[in-house]
Each structure stands twice: as C-alpha cells, then as structure tokens.
Amino acid sequence: GMEGGVESCGISPIHGLFATCGAGGSLVCHDLRTRSAVATFDVSSSVGQPGVALTAMRFDESGYQLGVGTAGGLVALYDLRSSKPLVVKDHLYDERIVDIKFRHPTKLSNSSNSAASHCVLSADRKACKLWRAGDGTTVTTIQPSGGGINDVMSSPSDGLVILGCDQPKMQVYFVPLLGPAPRWSSYLENVTEELGEQDRQQEAAPSAYDDYRFVTREDVKRLGLSHLLGTPVMRAYMHGFFVDQRLYHKAKSLSDPFAYDRYRQNVVREKLEEERRSRIAVAKKAPKINARLATKLMDERDGGAEEDLGETERPKSLLDDDRFASLFKDERFKIDEESEEYRLLHPNAPPSKKKPRFAAEDGSEEEEESEEELLPEPKMRYGRKHDDIAEVPLGQRLDSGGDGDGQRRKVTGSRELTWTPERRRGGQETGVDASGSGKKRRRRKMKV
C-alpha cells in the first residue's frame, strides 16, 4: 500500500503501466502482470517541496510522458526514463492541482517537431492554464466567474474547454488555438475570424508618423521651434505640425527644465493625500436637494458596510447609482415634504411648518381685526330702488334735497337699508349703522 492513501491514478495507453500518487509525495508505477511496484519517483523532493501531497496525474498519448500535480500548485512533467522533471510549471495560486490534460494544437507552432506543439492543460481551484510542454510558456489562462474548479473536460476534436465548478451550470469556453468550433456552434468561427482581422490590423506595419508628435502653432512658439518653420523637420498637417519625438522631448526639456520636478511633487502629494484619507474618515456632506433622503441612504449604506457581507451580496445604494444622480441635483425631482400626500405616506415625519389651510374657529382677535380692516367702509343708502338718487349718500341727499323755498321734499315709496356685517366671536353677525357709531343691529329689511 501507499503511505497516506491514493489521491490519483492513471494507466499508460501503450504499455499498460499503472501509476498512483498520494499524500506521501511519491509516484509509484506498477506492472499489472506482476502486481508489484516496478519504479518509485520522489516527486515532492524533485520539485523542491519535500513531503508535499500529490493530487493529480495523467499519461500522454505516447505513454512515455506523464504530468503530476501537487497540493502547492505545481505541475511537473516527467519522462519515464528519467527521475528528474523536464518542466515544472507553477500556477502561482498555492491551490491544489485538480486535473491535467495533454493537447496537440497544431496552430501553436509551424514546426514538424511534436514536442514543439505539445501542450498541457492543467487546472487548480482558481484557474485553468494552457502552456507549452517544451519550456512551460503560458499560452492562455481561463478563470471561471464563480466557484472553484473541480474537473476539466477537453475534446481532442474541437477547441471547447468545459469546466466543472461549484455551481449548477457548466462553464464552457472556446479556445481557437486548440481546434475548430463544433458543428452545433459554428457561429463561433465567424466571431474568431472577425477578432483575428482586428488583431492583424493592429499588428500591421507602423504608420509613417508613428515616431512623430503633433504640435500646434502655439506649442511651437512655447517650445522655441519657430525658426524651424518651413524646414523638412516641421511637417505641416491640418492646424499644426508633425515633429520628431526626439526633437520634441529635447526642446521641452530645454524650455521647461523643472517639469519633471513638478511632476514628481504632484505624484508625492497625491500619494500623501491617499494615505491621509485612509487614516482620517472624511465626513461627506449631504446634497442640498432631498438632503433628508440622502442622509437616510448614507446611514443605511454605512450600517450595511459594517456587516460581514460580500460585494455581490450587498445591494447598491441610490447614491452610488448614476441613474438616480438627478434625484439629488435637479430641482424638478425635489420631494415636497410639506404636501398632504407626503404626510399620508410618512405619518412619522417631523411636524409641518406650513400654515393650515383653514383657520381655527376660536381665532385670535388680531386676525379678526386684520380681516375687518380689509372690508370696505359701510355706507347707508336711502332712496328708491334703481334710481339715481339711491347712489347718493343719505347725508348729502338730505343737505341738498329741499326746494328753493326751504321746504323739505317728502320721499315716498319702498326703501331699503343695507349694511356690512361684522364678525364677532360665537358666530353672531351684527351690523354697523350709517353713522359708524358701532351700535349692534340685527339684519333686517325695512318698509317706509
């Protein structure tokens, strides 16, 4: 038996050699015909981590090479004819290796040597890496969006890589270097061709002005290069000129020799401000519009930050969402806290400062006096209805109402007395007489 138990095992497809590895850090090869160990490799010592557990292993198609993964995130590639590893690849995550696969993507190399195009697909709990078996160079890295990796599946006929993670759905990725897309997802070929054309355009021959810098006429004067206008050194283009990069940097250093010192001071000041902000909590001011709502949201956000919640579990606040930025900047979105609708929805809101729509029945005397001042002055009319004499006040009509002989003319017919009611406590209405003496009278209609 193996010390510490078996973690992984594999069998060679050519000669039938059976290999096992486990927590003891050794790889043991067995011959199934003799049922005994024929060779033992101390993998943990050869990779520089004595005693480390071995978690994964795999034979390649030739049967003479195998890869072994450790609990420390290392993958060692061995030839069965040597006890020293050919290549040791570090995943740099310090996570145990969960699976190892061998691939032969011909697109990676134009060489006829199989070793040059031989690649290894190894995965730990955080990432899956495709790297060259010859020198350990990383070709690509796949990091799933959620959950740790448990297993890797890669078909030799296409470029799909399927990862089994700690979540219900499988993570499927397409790597064009490994092979073509399957028939049921042929549209991936069109996507990769478009991406390849964009890459080729970016890697095309450099432009004629790659080593030049565009400057305006004001920049030429500031740099002191006005004497070079009209020479081959200054190439006119649109509203400025193209200048060689070396000439531009040299002229800038001569015209402003302290530019680097200012840049260095700005960088130092920014770093000091970042450190000072991390030590001192800056109190954030509430916005002018909807300040009460903003303060409430700040308290909820600060209270939620103290709890042990992940970034994905914590809901996003309205203050951090750009879609609701106008709620605290635009006057049109201001919440009227004095309205009746707001009072109905928020019964625990602070008392309103707005005056009530209707005054109380037992109002003060000052309010009544102010209302009386606004009323027109009462005037008493005495005369026939719908007559011109009715528009003349009683006092003026009596003074000038007689004949030339001094005798007063009699006035007969229906007459009406009107006056303006005066408000008093208790709801009782009184009238004001024509002389303004303030005597209280009941409203009535008189016949004379």
Q: What does this protein look like?
A:
With 448 residues, this protein is of the alpha+beta class. Helices cover 22% and strands 23% of the residues. It is built from nine helices and 20 strands. The protein has helices at 43-46, 187-202, 217-223, 245-255, 259-279, 291-306, 340-345, 365-374, 394-399, and strands spanning 6-11, 17-22, 26-31, 36-42, 54-59, 65-70, 74-79, 87-90, 97-103, 119-124, 128-132, 138-142, 149-154, 160-165, 171-174, 212-216, 235-237, 240-244, 422-423, 429-430. The strands form six sheets. The chain has a four-stranded antiparallel β-sheet with strand order 1-2-3-4. The protein has a four-stranded antiparallel β-sheet with strand order 5-6-7-8, with no helix packed on it. A hairpin with a 3-residue loop joins strand 10 and strand 11 (128-132). The longest helix is centred in the middle third of the chain and has 21 residues, at 259-279. Residues 109-116 and 429-448 have low confidence and may be disordered.
